[in-house]
C-alpha cells in the first residue's frame, strides 16, 4: 500500500506531462495547418489575380466601338487579325485558359444607349488554335453585363469533361477610359487542384 501511495504522485505527474506534450503537439499541428491553409489561400488568390491580369486590355486609340455594322455589313475598327493575335497571345501566356473572345460593348455617346453591335462577339479563339465563328449576341449573359459595366467578373465553378472551369470577363477600354468591349474566357481550374493536392494534414502529412 505504501508503495502504491508513493507511486501515485509519480504516475499523476507522468500522465500530466504526457497529456501536456500531446496537447502541445496538437496545438503545433493546428498552427502548422493554419499556416499551410493561409499559404494555399494566397497561392489560389495569386492564381486568380494572374488570370485576371491577363484579361486586362486597354486600347490607346480613339475607338468608340470594336466593330461597326452598316447595311448588314460588319466593319472592324480594329483589324480582325489583330484581335485574333491578341487572343492567341493570351492563350499562350496562360496555359489554363481554354478559350477567349472579344465582345463589343459600345454605347452611343450622344444618347448613352447601346449601339446596334452591343453584345456582339467579334473574335474568338480556342486552345486548339481554332478561330471560331463569331457574331453571336451575348448581351443578355451575366458575365458580359457585369464586365460591360466596368467591373471584373469571375463566375461560379462549373464542370466539364476537361475539368472544373470558371468564366472570367474584364472590360476593354479606349484611350479615354470608356468601356468599348469585353474580353472574356473560360479558365481551367486544374491549376488550383494542383495547389490543393500538394497539401496534406494529419496522419498523411503533419
Short synopsis of the structure:
The chain is an alpha+beta fold and 206 residues long. The protein has helices spanning 2-54, 80-93, 142-148, 190-197, and strands at residues 57-58, 67-70, 73-76, 97-104, 107-108, 113-114, 121-126, 153-154, 158-160, 163-173, 179-188.
Topology summary:
Layout: H1 2-54, E1 57-58, E2 67-70, E3 73-76, H2 80-93, E4 97-104, E5 107-108, E6 113-114, E7 121-126, H3 142-148, E8 153-154, E9 158-160, E10 163-173, E11 179-188, H4 190-197
Parallel strand pairs: 1-10
Antiparallel strand pairs: 2-3, 4-7, 4-11, 5-6, 8-10, 9-10, 10-11
Helix pairs in contact: 1-4
Report on the structure:
- The chain is α+β, with helices and mostly antiparallel strands.
- It contains four helices and eleven strands, in the order αβββαββββαββββα.
- Strands 1, 4, 7, 8, 9, 10 and 11 form a seven-stranded mixed β-sheet that branches. It has a two-stranded antiparallel ribbon with strand order 2-3.
- The N terminus is likely disordered.
Amino acid at each position: 500500500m505504501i508503495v502504491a501511495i508513493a507511486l501515485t504522485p509519480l504516475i499523476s505527474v507522468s500522465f500530466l506531462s504526457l497529456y501536456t506534450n500531446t496537447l502541445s503537439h496538437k496545438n503545433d499541428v493546428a498552427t502548422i495547418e493554419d499556416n499551410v491553409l493561409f499559404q494555399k489561400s494566397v497561392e489560389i488568390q495569386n492564381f486568380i489575380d494572374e488570370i485576371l491580369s491577363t484579361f486586362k486590355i486597354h486600347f490607346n486609340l480613339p475607338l468608340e466601338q470594336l466593330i461597326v455594322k452598316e447595311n448588314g455589313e460588319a466593319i472592324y475598327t480594329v483589324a480582325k487579325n489583330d484581335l485574333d493575335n491578341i487572343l492567341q497571345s493570351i492563350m499562350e501566356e496562360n496555359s489554363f485558359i481554354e478559350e477567349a473572345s472579344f465582345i463589343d460593348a459600345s454605347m452611343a455617346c450622344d444618347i448613352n444607349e447601346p449601339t446596334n453591335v452591343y453584345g456582339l462577339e467579334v473574335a474568338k479563339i480556342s486552345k486548339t488554335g481554332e478561330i471560331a465563328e463569331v457574331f453571336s449576341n451575348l448581351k443578355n449573359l451575366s458575365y458580359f453585363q457585369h464586365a460591360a459595366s466596368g467591373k471584373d467578373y469571375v463566375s461560379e465553378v462549373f464542370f466539364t469533361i476537361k475539368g472544373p472551369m470558371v468564366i472570367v470577363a474584364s472590360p476593354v477600354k479606349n484611350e479615354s477610359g470608356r468601356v468599348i468591349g469585353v474580353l472574356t474566357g473560360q479558365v481551367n481550374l486544374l491549376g488550383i487542384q494542383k495547389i490543393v493536392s500538394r497539401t496534406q494534414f494529419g496522419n498523411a502529412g503533419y
